[in-house]
Structures are given as C-alpha cells and as structure tokens.
Amino acid sequence: MARGAGMPRTRRDRGDGTLYFDDHTQRWVGQLDLGRDYTGKRHRPKVSGRTRAEARIKLLDLRAKHEAGVDLSSRSWNFADLTAAWLERGLPADLFENARSNYERMLTLHVVPVLGDIKLLELKSDHVEAMLDEMAEQNLAASSMRHALNLTRRVLRFAMLRDLVIRNVAEPVQTRRGPKAQRFGLTVDQAKGLLAAAATDRLANMLTLCLLLGLRPGEASALTWPHVKTDGDRPTITIAASLRRTPLGELVLVPPKTFTSRRTLEIPPPVVDALNKQRKLQAADAATAGQAWSNIHDLVFSTEVGTPLDPSNVRRTYNRIAKEAGIVHLHPHMLRHAAASLLSAAGVPIEDISDTLGHRSVAVTAEIYRHPIAPIRSGHMIAMNQLFDAPPEPKKAQPKRAKPAPTKTKAQPTKPRRPKPDGGVSDNGDRQPPAPVAKARSTSINNASPTSWTEPS
Are residues 350 and 271 in the same domain? Predict the structure, then answer.
C-alpha cells in the first residue's frame, strides 16, 4: 500500500532488517546490513515489494538465506553466469579438451537457453524440468537428456560449494524417456564378409585389429611399434595412447580415455598376420616416400607419408568397405560393438569382454556394447544338461534269502567296548580304522564349457 504524503515512516520490526518506502519507485524496500567485505566495501542487499507485507516476507527470506550460509554478494548471478564460472574454474585440470568442448556445447545449445536468465536464488526444480521437456519436444535422444541433466547437477553442485545456493534443485528431477539410439553388432558371417571386402584396402589391417580386439578408433590410430610384440609364444599389444583432434584441428597423442583403457592384450594369429603385413606395407610406403616420410611417433597405422590418419578419412573408408560387404552403414566405433557381440556369442564371460574393451564397469559392457547376434538364447543349455541329462537309475529289488536256522552256542564272555578313533566302538571291542570321508562333488554352471566359435579369417 502506498504511503500517503506526510505519513510517518513505519518503524522496522525488531530483527527483520530495515523496511522503508521508496518515494521514487513507489515500492516498499527491505534492506540487510551485512557489514563490510574483505575489500572494505559495505554490503547492503535489498529486496522490494508492492506492499509492506510483501517486502517483509522477501526480507525474511533473504535473511534466512544469509543465515544458511548463502553468499548474498553474488545473488545477482544467473545460471548463465554460473555456467561460465564452472567451465572456467570447476572442471578437473586433467580433463581432455574434447570433453570440455562437449560439455560446453551441450550447455550452450540446450541448458543455458532455458535456464540462463534465471537468478540462482530463484531457480527451482520446475525450471529444470521445463528444460528437459523442451529437449523431449525436439525429439532428442534419452542419452542427450541424461547428459544435460547431469551437467546441470554438476554446475549447481559447484554453486553449493561456493555458497551461492542452499540446495541443488536439479537433484530430485528425473530424466525423460526419449528415443534410444539403435546400436548393432555383426554376425560371424557379416564379420567375415567385412574382412573379405577390406582385403585389398590399405586400412584392412587396422580394421582387423578393431574388429577382433574391440579397439577404439583413436586407440588403433595411436598404436606404436614399440608397443607391439609379435614374436614369442604369447604375442601382445599394449594400448598406451589415443589419437585426438584438438579444437585447433591438430592431431595429437593423448593418454587413453580412462585408467582401465591402458591395457595389454594377447593377440590371436589373425591379428599377428595383420600386423606383419602392416609392417611390410609401411616399409614400402617409407621407401616410396623417401625424404617426405615423417613418422615421428613410430605409428603402426599411418598415411603414405607416415603422418597420423585423419579420423574423417578412416570413417569414410570404413563406410565404403561396409557397403561393398552388404552392410548399410558402418561407423568405426561400431566395430567395437561388433567385437563385444562376437565375443559374447562365443561364450566369453562378460568380465573378460569388459577387460578386453578397457571398460571401467561391466555394466557399460552389458548395457551398451554387447548385442545378441542370434534370436534364440542358448547359453544356459549346457549347464542345465549337465544337471539333468543323467538321472539316477532306480535300484533293483534284491531277492530275499531264507534265514538260517538258529543254533545253540555257549555264551561267550564279552570284552569291554573300546572307543574307535572316530568316537565309536566296534562290536567285539577291537579298535577299527575310521571310515573314509567322501569328497563332495558339485555341479556348477561355471564348469560348463562355452560354445566354441571360429575367428573370422
């Protein structure tokens, strides 16, 4: 209610801060005196309302936030300001540049346009849900909505650690269901057809490694000869780096994606043959290039002049080979999915598949990478057959024998009963050896031999 001319200024309520009417704005104003900050500047945050009661409620809310530890000096921040601060100071120092770019792109395209102008102290869970609803209307994948929600939660956790908000309003929000990206594996026949179609291509050896070992495209492109051992009884390769493109377009070798991605794999004979062929092919390329040859990293797979392979060129080459093999589309990363599916169809345990692919969790392997390549599941058959194939035979009835006629004998004096070693006694008092203990036999599905399969040649 507007204060009339000449009306005396209403006295503030005790403990509520200052309440007064501003003649210029014609609104009631509430003000807290928080003293001086570290620079010596006095900090007096304000709120306003059309009525005294409205301004008083806002002032009490402001005071409650201050008592809860919220930094009111930054209460003018909106979500866009917070996002910029998180990207600058809230990310791990060792985060890959590509990951940072992905975070920034997701926030810029889908989160900030909806939440950016909202003040942090006014942000509610409803606003976050509205952001997800808008993404769902755009028919974005469920994984994209989960990514956007997780980033929003991380940004608000950053704000909580700096006392900019009291709680994380994105935590109780549930992600929306959206279209799920279809991922496909390859059957054994498709894998063989793919290898046959790639036989005459210079990337055939690289495709063989990716398909049979499930390497990431960047891991195969960054493989170096010092990490390849094709001699001896157990030839191996070691995944120690990944090829990445920087925001400036430069191709560089960086550490693997995760800690478990650095791994040493024993390689089967088809991979050994592919690596030996690649060594001869690269020697021929170096001889042809002459002084133009420049393989400073000693890469296994390189261009005709020794430089790193461009991921875009690899993708186009794989797609062309796939079409020749009758496969509609093949992204380089799909070979990783295919490897997991083929290993699973061969009966390899999911834990071993996860270790081979370098996953941090078996759940990632099971939910994302492993795809059934047969419509009928039969992995349980061997174990069940072991349990029920040989039922116990019924015992045959034995013919009854006639009891002999009793004969009269003199009673013999009984000997004292002496204990057996196992705690019992014999009938005639003599010590008897303990009865042998039968070993327990167990039938476990882990003892079932998996169905064998043939490596694509």
Answer: yes
359 is catalytic: yes
Question: Of 65, 75, 244, 336, which one is the catalytic site residue?
Answer: 336
CB neighbourhood size of 274 (10 A): 20
Average pLDDT over residues 259-268: 88
Range of the domain at 130: 79-161
Per-residue pLDDT of 2-26, as tens digits, reads 454 445 555 544 445 778 788 888 8
DSSP for 364-425 reads: HIIIII----SSS--TTHHHHHHHHSSPPPPPPPPPPPPPPPP---PPPPPPPPPBPTTS-B
Residue that the structure tokens 């200024």 belong to: 9
| Catalytic-role residue among 52, 65, 216, 244 | 216
Q: Are 162 and 124 in contact (CB under 8 A)?
A: no
Kindly state whether residue 284 falls inside one of the protein's structural domains. yes
Active site residue 262: no
Q: Which residue has the tokens 């929000």?
A: 173
Does residue 421 fall inside a structural domain?
no
220 and 364, same domain (yes or no): yes
323 and 237 fall within a common domain: yes
Whether residue 120 is contained in a domain is answered as: yes
Residue with tokens 């390189």: 302
Q: Above 70 in pLDDT, residue 429?
A: no
pLDDT tens digits for 197-239?
999 999 999 999 998 888 988 999 999 999 999 998 899 999 9
CA gap 42, 40 in Å, rounded: 6
Q: Does 228 lie in the same domain as 93?
A: no
- pTM of this prediction exceeds 0.90: no
Q: Which of 103, 337, 369, 370 is catalytic?
A: 369
- Phi/psi for 300 (5° steps) reads -75, -45
Read off the pLDDT band of 147 (50, 70, 90): very high
Selecting among 257, 297, 337, 370, the annotated active-site residue is: 257
Active site residue 257: yes
CA atoms of 105 and 82, how far apart (whole Å): 16
Q: Which residue is catalytic, options 75, 110, 359, 370?
A: 359
264 domain residue, yes or no: yes
